[in-house]
Amino acid sequence: MTAPVPLLPPPAERLTRYGQLRDRILTDPDWGRMVRWFAPLVVTAVAAVLRLVNLGHPHQLAFDETYYVKDAWSLWTLGYEGTWGEDANEAFVTLQKLPLSDVGAFVVHPPLGKWLIALGMSLGGPDNTVGWRLATALFGTASVLLVYLVARRLTGSIPVATVASGLLAIDGLSIVMSRIALLDGLLTFFLLLGALFILHDRRQTIPLIERIDPEAPDPMWGRVFWRRPWLVAAGIALGAACAVKWSGLYALAAFGLYVVVTDALARRRAGVVLWPTSAAFRQGPVSFVLLILPALAAYLASWTGWLVTSGGYARQSDPNPLLALWKYHDLILDFHVGLSKGHPYASPAWEWPFLLRPTAVWVGTDPAPCGVDHCIAVISTIPNPLIWYAGVAATVYLIYRLVRGWITRQPVGPALTFPLIGLAATYVPWLMIPERTIFQFYTVAMMPFLVLALAVTLRVIAGRREDPLHRRQSGERTVAIFLVVVVLVSAFFYPVWTGMSVPYDFWLLHNWLPGWV
Q1: SS3 of residue 64 by DSSP
Q2: SS3 412
Q3: Could you count the other beta carbons within 10 Å of the beta carbon of residue 88?
Q4: What are the percentages of helix, strand and coil residues in the chain, rounded to 5?
Q5: d(CA 58, CA 55)
Q6: How many Cα atoms occupy the beta-carbon half-sphere of 431 within 13 Å?
Q7: φ/ψ (deg, to 5) at 503
Q8: Is residue 213 part of a domain?
Q9: Which of 204, 267, 294, 437 is deepest in the core (most CB within 10 A)?
């Protein structure tokens, strides 16, 4: 009796065939070109579907949309933020006469994000909820593509870039902040754009620095580089981030410091004798001009409507419009410094890694029928818990690798350090102001760098080509199982990210911690 023919080849043979197929995809020009285009397009398309489908729900102002949507329409009609009368929220929903006066209102965020929201509103009118949220949805989708490009630039790996962007595409916090007309999703886009341009500058400039000849006429100092168009582009992008929310200043400072430090290390590798001094005091001022002046120009450009009109708040405080703007900024700074008013969803930054208090940005007062007697509809900024906690753990691992590299004097690549720079810029400053009223959903700006850290760590878990066969098998299997579970968790939480009407008991299953209610 003959032995049955196995349906599948042995595991070792399957892995060999998989490796051969992978090598073919990576080395064959036609296959490689197709995958390089196909992977980001598919991930971006998934992100677009999750963010755009039923975007107009709920048909009312949710959470802080009451500020930004109304300010956006005021900018579109007046050029500056005017004062709204009573029942303005209801007027937006029912398209009654909008109670907007031309008296300037005191607002505490720069105008760029609200101008972008206004562009969407201009297409459908002030009562069109899709128009309110179109800008945040499109920019949120584009942020997924930017994560792919950043990860690809950092690692050179299509799988790592696909995993990083795919994790952001299906993360709940990123989905919610793309479906609600708040500023933080727009801020995240410009931070990522600036980060990508910084990486392009590093790719272009670092090889030029490292090719400095120690026998050149000035081996003590090295050359100064003015031609850095990507650094100028980064300044514009990060200036736009500051023009959405002032917290973009932290990223501008962090990435500026990153440029100086990496310049210094490249000069050391090139054999420049006074490499720290050269990077800080010769190239440093040039880099400052190339980065900060474009950022300042982009920021000031966002205030054009306020500058060219006369009705904005504090616009008449000085005959010189720039001095008037400076005085207005002084008032805004005083507001931010003194903001300590309590809020039921306030969450200090030390709580953020533990995910103790997400924000419910909308709770339906009259949810649609769901097949049972007691239904509820909620939009909550809970991220995918598995992505969040795994990303925090991956960040701790990258910090360990960085410290170990310093101690052992082993080089640590940008794939390990760059996500930490982004996280430092978007998290650490909030720890410095524990008394200020802040919210967990601010971490949407951290999410891209968390998924970058997680994707890099998953690559370590998956193993390298030179690792033993059993090591690669177990590592790749672990990563695959983790990613499948992540997708299932996102599917489970999707109803509470999009305000679907669900049975009350089903909603309770999503409240894993007391503060999630």
Answers
A1: coil
A2: coil
A3: 18
A4: 65, 5, 30
A5: 8
A6: 10
A7: -60, 145
A8: yes
A9: 267
Q: At 379, list the tokens.
A: 């939009």
- Chain segment 369-410, per-residue pLDDT in tens: 877 888 999 999 999 999 999 999 999 999 999 999 888 888
Which residues lie across from 100 on neighbouring strands?
84
Q: Phi, psi (5° rounding) for residue 107?
A: -120, 155
How far apart are the C-alpha atoms of 186 and 180, rounded to whole Å?
Answer: 11
For residue 36, what pLDDT band results from cuts at 50, 70 and 90? confident
Rounded-to-integer distance, Cα 510 and Cα 164, Å: 24
Distance from C-alpha of 244 to C-alpha of 304, rounded to nearest angstrom: 14
DSSP 239: H
**In angstroms, rounded to a whole number, what is the distance separating the alpha carbons of residues 237 and 115?**
16
Contact 468, 460 (CB under 8 A): no
Measured CA distances, 68 to 109, 190, 382, 456 (Å): 9, 18, 22, 36
User: Does the residue 235 lie in any domain?
Assistant: yes
Max distance between CA atoms of the chain, in angstroms, equals: 101
Task: Report CA dihedral (316, 322, 326, 332) to the nearest 10 degrees.
Answer: 70
Is 383:85 a contact under the CB 8 Å cutoff?
A: no
> Which domain range does residue 291 map to?
184-316
Q: Where are the alpha helices (DSSP H) in 156-228?
A: 158-169, 172-179, 184-210
d(CA 306, CA 349): 33
User: Shortest CA distance to 72 belongs to which of 98, 34, 40, 44?
Assistant: 98
pLDDT in tens, 64-89: 999 999 999 999 999 999 999 888 88
This prediction has a pTM of 0.92
Residue 442 burial (CB < 10 Å; 0-12/13-18/19+)?
A: buried
Assess contact for 184 and 445: CB atoms under 8 A: yes
- Residue 458's nearest CA partner among 386, 403, 406 is 386
At residue 102, φ and ψ (nearest 5 deg) are: -90, 10
Q: Could you tell me if residue 507 is inside a domain?
A: no
Alpha helices, DSSP H, located in 338-413 = 385-408
User: How many domains would you assign to the chain?
Assistant: 1
Q: Could you identify the residue written with the tokens 């650094």?
A: 231
* Cβ-contact 498, 379 below 8 angstroms: yes
Beta bridge partners of residue 363, listed in sequence order:
378
DSSP helix/strand/coil, 271: coil
Q: Is residue 191 part of a domain?
A: yes
The residues that bridge with 376 in the sheet, in sequence order, are 502
398 touches 418 (CB < 8 A): no
**Weakest mean pLDDT among 31-35, 72-76, 416-420, 504-508:** 31-35
What amino acid is encoded at 511 in this protein? N
Distance of alpha carbon 74 from alpha carbon 27, whole angstroms: 54
